[in-house]
Amino acid sequence: MSDYLVKELMVPLSEYATVAEGSTLFDAVLALEKAQEEFDHTKYKHRAVLILDKDRQVIGKLGQLDVLRALEPKDGNLDDINELSQYGFSSNFVRNVRKQRRLQASSLQDICSKAAKLKVEDFMQAPSEGEFIDQEASLEIAVLQLVMGHHLSLLVTKARKIVGILRLTDVFAAVFHTMKECENTL
Predict the structure, then answer these.
(1) How confident is the model at residue 42 (pLDDT cuts 50, 70, 90)?
(2) Which of 104, 156, 158, 176 is deepest in the core (most CB within 10 A)?
(3) pLDDT tens per residue across span 111-163
(4) Helix pair 76-83, 91-104: axis angle to 10 deg
(5) Could you give the CA distance from residue 86 to residue 78 in angstroms, rounded to a whole number?
(6) Distance between start and end Cα atoms, the chain
(7) Are 133 and 155 in contact (CB under 8 A)?
(8) Residue 171 near residue 9, CB atoms below 8 Å
């Protein structure tokens, strides 16, 4: 695996889906759709959007699961439902109560219409210290960081500036390729 460097596997920032801070979830979904359409179709599609500040620096990442979380109702009743487990109710019971609450809520169209207007920074994940990797790092280091941090991607840096994103799918493809080469030489 040591033949690979992060910079050889990363997706450059210029090719990744991005939106400006203050954009709506709808803007982010459109950016993700556009990036998927324009990206090399021999590779895996993008599953996240990077959020940029006014200086075009990455301040967060909005994944598909983050967008779906934005569809959840945001009121005191949900907090009350989550507290039921503290009183000895099973997680299955709490899940069923949440499901009932969801079914009593508005239609999917109404929920999506409201969520589309929400700001990305309210749902994005700010990068943690363990989510950065230097572009000159080896694939072994990237695998370690992905596994230890349970990350789906890492932000690639050059001189402390984010220049790309290293996705789990691309790392897995390189590992798989290396396994095949090893097997063929035996």
Answers:
(1) low
(2) 156
(3) 888 889 999 999 999 999 899 999 999 999 999 999 999 999 999 999 989 99
(4) 160
(5) 14
(6) 16
(7) yes
(8) yes
pTM over 0.85: no
Domain 6-68+118-185 is found in CATH 3.10.580.10 = yes
Helix 168-185 to helix 139-149 angle, to the nearest 10 degrees? Answer: 130
d(CA 171, CA 80): 41
**pLDDT tens digits, one per residue of 44-69:** 677 899 999 999 999 999 998 999 88
pLDDT digits (tens, 9 = 90+) for 70-117: 887 665 555 566 677 677 778 788 777 777 776 666 778 888 888 899
3-state helix/strand/coil string of the chain: CCCCEHHHHCEEHHHCCEEECCCEHHHHHHHHHHHHHHCCCCCCCCCEEEEECCCCCEEEEEEHHHHHHCCCCCCHHHHHHHHHHHHCCCHHHHHHHHHHHHHHCCCHHHHHHHHCCCEHHHCCECCCHHHEEECCCEHHHHHHHHHHHCCCEEEEEECCEEEEEEEHHHHHHHHHHHHHHHHHHC
| 1, pLDDT greater than 70 | no
Query: Distance of CA 103 to CAs 21, 91, 181, Å?
Result: 32, 18, 51
